[in-house]
Amino acid sequence: MGNIKIHGLRKEKRKFFFVLLRLAEMGAYQRSIKVSTFLLAEKIGLSQQTASRYLLDLQRLGWIERSITRNGGLIRITEAGRSVLREVFSRLSVILESKIPSSLMFEGVVFSGLGEGSYYVTREAYRRQFIEKLGFDPYPGTLNVKLLSEHDVKARAELDNYPAIEIEGFKDKDRTYGPVRCFRALINNEAEGAVVCALRSHYNSSVIEIISPFYLRGKLKLNDGSRVRVEVFPNIPSKKGET
Amino acid sequence: MGNIKIHGLRKEKRKFFFVLLRLAEMGAYQRSIKVSTFLLAEKIGLSQQTASRYLLDLQRLGWIERSITRNGGLIRITEAGRSVLREVFSRLSVILESKIPSSLMFEGVVFSGLGEGSYYVTREAYRRQFIEKLGFDPYPGTLNVKLLSEHDVKARAELDNYPAIEIEGFKDKDRTYGPVRCFRALINNEAEGAVVCALRSHYNSSVIEIISPFYLRGKLKLNDGSRVRVEVFPNIPSKKGET
DNA sequence: ATTACTACTCACCGAGTAA
DNA sequence: TTTACTCGGTGAGTAGTAA
Q1: Which nt is closest to the CA of A47, judged by C1'?
Q2: Where do runs of H (alpha helix) occur along chain A?
Q3: Fewer CB within 10 Å, N- or C-terminus of chain A?
């Protein structure tokens, strides 16, 4: 979730991305092109020897195909190589084209509430929706985090502007329960969960409440006063079709 | 033209691009975010010390702004930094979204024609259009290049499918002169010019004819039999609005 | 807790050169 | 002509640590 290592190739991507981009610009994205190591060296501003090694490495990685003749080899980018370029492109698209940041980082301190969290989370009508829309059955309780700095409080307020996973309100015979907005989150870079924002919260915006399939105080060894880092992903949608 | 060093920062871009991308994904593209060197280190998979140096370097480059407090600095990407990301994005767009390659590379051998090139280039109605649409007054003569390999001939044939800078045909009292398709080109990675493709050419598709503001045989020290490299840019439009 | 210095290691780049 | 090897210098990344 945001951090999972799909990439056992981080280092390689960093090293070879711009060379691959150059080759693509020379036409190797769609066709075979004739490139000598000397020509490539010129284009990337490095030596012929380095260009040669780069091509060998790219070949070993399976990002290009190559057939060497005596006056410069024929090169074309493979599907694997194309997907490297596409991946960077789509990461940039998200950043440049969407107004919604891919994640927001919060820092705060754990504190104990009065158990209201637990009460609400265990209401069956809420619980059913958490399971359906978030994909997990929440531990019966919330982790309350007090935001300390100005900066965090401002960022928290911004969350209100982003599209959330919406949990509908309901009534029972005694009272009404308001709608809740959720955002997927990662706590201490380790445990998945969600930030829940009740529209009529008993807390002000310097507090965030977190639910999770795990008992977070146990899993992350937290006590009152522990510092936690919460990364919120406003872009990750709910499991089942939601706006 | 394709190769001009707008970038005195090639090396820096290669080195810092992915770090900048990471920071952007963490939200620094639009807002200030709180990032400790330790957190950044985690995200990029390198040590805290390296992350610290990266941030210092990015700051010196003017790609980020930074204010250090005692629990992690506040960081935001500057306009200069954003433009680095946008540049890579647009280079990728060109490759991924257009069917037209940004350049095609040809290799061949210089040979002498019978002077017809010179005759056509100096027709006033052609010359006027070259000046208007290509932005240069061509040397009165063409450089003929014989393509030797199968691969080059195929690539030459592909040019017919790409949108060219169109030079209109005309009539004088004696005869008609056909339309001509031009593509901007770089000869031996050094001299600007254009490849001209007459629709009714006296040559077959294993030859390309080049015009240039320069006397290329002189400028590039070419003789009959010299090998030349011609890079053709099918995407660079004419000076004045042309389809 | 932070940031960032110094010192050290190792990987990378390029000169020379063989094939 | 090419490609790509070896090898030596340089610069990038990390451990230790001060502030």
Answers
A1: C14
A2: 10-23, 37-44, 48-61, 79-97, 116-121, 124-134, 150-159, 216-219
A3: C
